[in-house]
């Protein structure tokens, strides 16, 4: 570690009058503003549905489209950083996000909303990457990625929890549109500060945006959006009995096949054709992400149904659990920083800890879920769930450093984020929601079959009686699904325990940007030379 080449931290793109100790903290504030921004805010989805002609699935589709756009950026993140000046990047991203929030607050068109969120997600992560890469040496002078990723997830997951709290409170005191206007105001203030404090300097000589497979990038985006569409709208359209779902599935499969076929003969595809074959770890990481997100899909489906539908909490009480998630995120990142980044515990041990947290979370609800469950009783499982998620996420993301920089690393991060940010969550939610519907239908049939004339006459309102049966069926079904997922979690723990691997996050350093630039510059030169010879 001591022999790794380091550089002195500096932010030359800021003007001289900005105090040196203040500069990195100013950049951190910019990151927070970017992370709070977005196309739609899923925490206020109920208010949006109530005041627009949109369905809940429409808003979810827009939210996941933002995450798909975000994931695609990672495939070209170094190219974008070295092609555009830092100040120009900040202005483009800021202005784009301002326009996106204005559009999302005033449109009822689903295609426009999805497209706007897709672009907003790309711009949000572009601005975030520009800021985070600027202060990388400040966070970890030796460029240790296991340390850097702890900072990334601490900031990103904390922003998710806090932005949800902000969106619900803004919607409660005013309307959901004011959340967008608040972000617009914050972004305008940030743009004014950037114009005042940033100069026109480049950190390094520019590289043109030459040879990027924009078509391949777009096709991967289409594949991601098709998967999201099928998972989000599947239950609404009755899955493959619907023409819309069949069409989206066909389009996604055909686009994926064409994309892989293109990658087999073009020089530099957006995702190399041999990525999955040459580095099986990419597929293994995707499997871990899908498994983990499926176990945590109950967070989005069950917790709101439990707290609002069964326990009767209002939106403010429900969103207050985000404070527990926020504390869990901080505690999890601190824990991973100590045992993983500093003590260098193995990947296997970290995954075992993460899935143990998932198993505890599922077991807690399986054994203790009840009509009389207090709000305070939810604190521990939510806290443990947050700790487990950041433990898994940081470990899996750090594993990408085993791929060669910069091309395979960028593509590995791109594919992994495409799943971890959007696709895996959608798949997990679709599986769990479908399982819940099947189990609930069977339980309700069994409960309603025991209702006789005596039971009916004891209630003044037969609708009230069937409402009670429906509520009881929901509670029993949730308990049953928690049990099924708990069995899956225990099986995953056994598999991890029986897999012998002592690989540790040693040598997980980020190369110097000057070295990355030389590699990219040489690659561009080879592309131009090949075109001239052709």
List the helices and strands and how they pair.
Layout: H1 23-36, H2 45-51, H3 56-73, H4 77-83, H5 86-106, H6 110-134, H7 136-139, H8 145-173, H9 177-197, H10 214-233, H11 243-263, H12 275-278, H13 281-295, H14 298-310, H15 315-319, H16 321-342, H17 347-368, H18 379-398, H19 407-448, H20 453-457, H21 462-498, H22 513-533
Helix pairs in contact: 1-6, 1-8, 1-9, 3-6, 3-10, 3-19, 5-6, 5-9, 8-16, 8-18, 10-11, 10-19, 13-18, 13-19, 14-21, 16-18, 17-18, 17-21, 19-21
How does this structure look, described?
With about 525 residues, the protein is an all-alpha fold. Helices cover about 75% and strands about 0% of the residues. α3 (about 55-75) runs antiparallel to α10 (about 215-235) and α13 packs antiparallel against α18 (about 380-400). The protein is globular. The two termini are about 45 Å apart. The model is unreliable at about 1-5 (pLDDT under 50).
